[in-house]
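Ticket #4471: structure export looks truncated?
Reporter: QA, pipeline team
Priority: medium

Steps to reproduce: submit the single chain below to the structure queue and open the exported record.
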Amino acid sequence: MRTMQATGHGAGPLPRTRQHLWLAWVLARRDLHGRYRGAVLGLLWALLTPMLMLGVYLLAFGPLLRARWPGVDSWQAFALMVFSGLAVHGLFAECLVRAPALVVERAGYATKVVFPLDILPWPALATALFHFCMQLLVLLAGVLWLRGGLPPTVLALPLVLLACVPLLLGVLWALGALGVFLRDIAQLVAPLVTVLLFLSSALVPLDVLPARYRWLFELNPLTLIIEQLRRMLFFGLWPQWSLLALYAGLALLAGGAGYALFRKLQPGFADVL
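Actual output as written to the record:
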């Protein structure tokens, strides 16, 4: 039987048919239910987990450490600041961790059936976005509790999130394809995720960094998304549209490059798997 990679008729960068959209939805739903299968509370844990983590941050950065963030007037706001940065990092980290095994764990799709392999990143991204949105709901509830209301700038949240979607897809396509041939990539992801965390503004305010090191943090793809999220939620400022447009343009290039690499390597998947 000829496989999809042999025929060259994949789904394309976007799922282009109703069947492909339905298939991506089914895979995403199966992934989510599989992750929480056997748990008494099921999918509710996707919301309870970030709530528990926020409680931990409030306790750690409040009564225990009394920590402060420059420009922020309370330890509660400090905890929410950290929580927002870690939520963005979690979105990127989930995609990075899953990417190398994206095709390997579904070897049957590549070797036995006609399947549009290039839609595999979409269910993985959908799952990561679902968990991020659950954390975002908790974050919005925290800001509402702390400030007594939400600034109108929260309306721009989908645009900021949309800007990084092509980049995440590119990472999933590129690492998913390379992971078929280079299994060591999976071992490199964990330290990379840690580097992305500590060289971003998730835990460290950019204003306190020495000028000679700040560029390292600004080059981190997490930093701009984290900073724009904080501008909107905590300071009531609209995103920096020019920077966001530049980021989105580079993300589109990265997404296109990741997809091109996936399509180039796809014919060899069946031979390796």
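Status: closed, not a bug. The export was complete when the record was re-opened. Leaving a note from the reviewer for reference: The chain has twelve helices and no strands.
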